[in-house]
Specification:
- This protein is of the alpha/beta class and 261 residues long.
- It folds into 2 domains: 194 residues, 2-enoyl-CoA Hydratase, Chain A, domain 1, CATH 3.90.226.10; 50 residues.
- Helices cover 48% and strands 16% of the residues.
- Strands 1-2-3-5-7-10 form a 6-stranded mixed sheet, sandwiched between helices. It has a 4-stranded mixed sheet with strand order 4-6-8-9.
- Strand 1 and strand 2 form a beta hairpin.
- The longest helix has 16 residues.
- The two termini are 26 Å apart.
Amino acid sequence: MDTQYFSVESRGYVRAISMTNSRKHNSFNAAMSADLVRLLEVARHDGTRVVLLRAEPGVKVWSAGHDISDLPTGDEDPLNWTNTLAEMADAVAGFPLPLIAVVEGGVWGGACELVMSADLVVAHIDSTFAITPAKLGVAYSSGGVSRFMAALPSHIVKEMFFTAEPISANRAHELGVVNRLAADEPELSTQAWELAERIAQRAPLTLRSIKAEARAVSEPTYAAGTAEELKSLRDAAWTSEDYQEGVQAFRQRRPPEFRGR
């Protein structure tokens, strides 16, 4: 399942998708963006319950964001340009399974939005996060800005966009963007896998429903017209075999064995 830009590792219900384009600082061109969307679509349908999105160990740059060679040039109409990284971030935000960004190194530009689109973040203590359109003179999408606004206080978002200066992993942790900090790469990997495996033990249908509800609250453009979808997800959890198993396991004082149905 490995591709030109990613390697894939599975342990039980957890799937790790690792960026392998470190020669170009894991900057996303159209092909790499499409690869990630395809890999997520596979995970969505093959029994995976939690996804880790990471880079290869030891990188200095987790991702440099958008491959600048893919940006529109002077003879192109930017209003007709297809922003494949923005489309990829939309796919990540809409991915129905829990997704954990495992960050080591610098996170630049559109890659910072990618991290904001994740559900949880585990980061190396030396990591940094910067959103940089003001350094290039480009506009930024409403959907992208809304993901920052959902994750951070508005004044922090404006400072990050206005200055294009990075914030540290410690600062991101204080602000609630980073869930766990790690002192070195082995600890980073251990924390990420342990967190993912713990989540993978929980009821999958409940997790899907909660993730969709949280997105509806944080993204107004998504919330419009999703009432029936949210109800369907809630109903699926309430009427599932997993619900019966969870109640029975609680009464019997044993760990539940959820099957996602």
